[in-house]
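testing teh design pipeline on a random one, pls ignore if ur not involved
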């Protein structure tokens, strides 16, 4: 296995890191990688809260921080905290950032990955609280910056879309269908089961996607040169071809497609293999922008909507 310093050097140089099989290491506190796909700059309000989270876990938590991976970050290439910063300008491609971080995580030794956005601030000991729930895929709760400040956790709606959770008991831990990745703890087995339960395909435009094995009806691809995509009875028919990852590609756990965010795609891939995300509503985060959105803003909007404020 490549040493941590070697992996840092290779990522810093933009070279492909050799992926190796995971080797579990017994530890009194399980290893957790912290993952931050981000813009080059973050709010000054965000940094102290993230440092407080990390310090609380190191001093009092039930987990051990293995490393911090930040893509498109203002952090330096390597420091004593083992922070990886890949200086690629992907400001609008969070899906690419997440895929790169995930590949590094799966090639490492940590059992868990904890996702933070560069505008969400989880509370102290958030990782320990989520870990203690016993769920392999669980998120804390934060609230949209839009006017209604809806919780960023959703259930499937009758129309096929998703709707924000509502009417939940404060402090409840509940299964949902979609969670954001701004405060999300995931065990590596979730990623492994997704890969085992899906086959990689390419469209005619060479884009890569994962499709559930249980829904593959015919494994013989058509000749793309003789096939024009068409719609029949509201169903789009287009060729897709089994494939493997090419040099420089990472597994498509995340994708920004059809105006849907990358976290939706990941949750749907997990659902295909029988995994639902959970949300712990007691782990509430601040959502930092020009102003900071908290649970109180959501509650105030609900009271205003009901004519009580």
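output:
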């Amino acid at each position: 296995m490549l040493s941590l310093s070697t992996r840092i050097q290779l990522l810093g140089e933009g070279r492909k890191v050799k992926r190796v099989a995971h080797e579990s290491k017994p530890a009194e506190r399980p290893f957790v990688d912290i993952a931050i796909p981000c813009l080059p700059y973050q709010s000054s309000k965000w940094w102290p809260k993230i440092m407080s989270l990390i310090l609380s876990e190191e001093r009092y938590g039930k987990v051990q921080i293995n490393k911090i991976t930040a893509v498109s970050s203002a952090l330096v290439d390597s420091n004593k905290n083992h922070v990886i910063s890949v200086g690629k300008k992907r400001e609008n491609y969070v899906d690419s950032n997440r895929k790169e971080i995930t590949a590094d995580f799966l090639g490492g030794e940590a059992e868990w990955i904890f996702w933070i956005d560069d505008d969400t601030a989880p509370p102290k000991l958030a990782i320990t609280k989520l870990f203690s729930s016993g769920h392999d895929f669980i998120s804390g709760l934060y609230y949209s910056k839009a006017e209604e400040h809806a919780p960023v956790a959703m259930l499937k709606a009758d129309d096929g879309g998703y709707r924000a959770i509502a009417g939940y008991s404060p402090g409840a831990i509940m299964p949902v269908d979609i969670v954001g990745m701004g405060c999300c703890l995931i065990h590596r087995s979730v990623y492994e089961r997704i890969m085992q339960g899906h086959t990689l395909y390419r469209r005619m435009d060479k884009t890569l996607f994962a499709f559930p094995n249980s829904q593959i009806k015919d494994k013989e691809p058509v000749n793309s040169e003789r096939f024009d995509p068409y719609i029949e009875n509201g169903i789009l028919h287009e060729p897709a071809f089994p494939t493997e990852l090419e040099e420089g590609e990472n597994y498509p756990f995340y994708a920004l497609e059809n105006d849907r965010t990358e976290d939706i795609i990941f949750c749907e891939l997990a659902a295909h293999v029988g995994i639902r995300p959970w949300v712990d509503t007691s782990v509430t985060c601040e959502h930092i922008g020009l102003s900071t959105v908290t649970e109180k803003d959501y509650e105030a909007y609900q009271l205003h909507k009901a004519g009580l404020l």
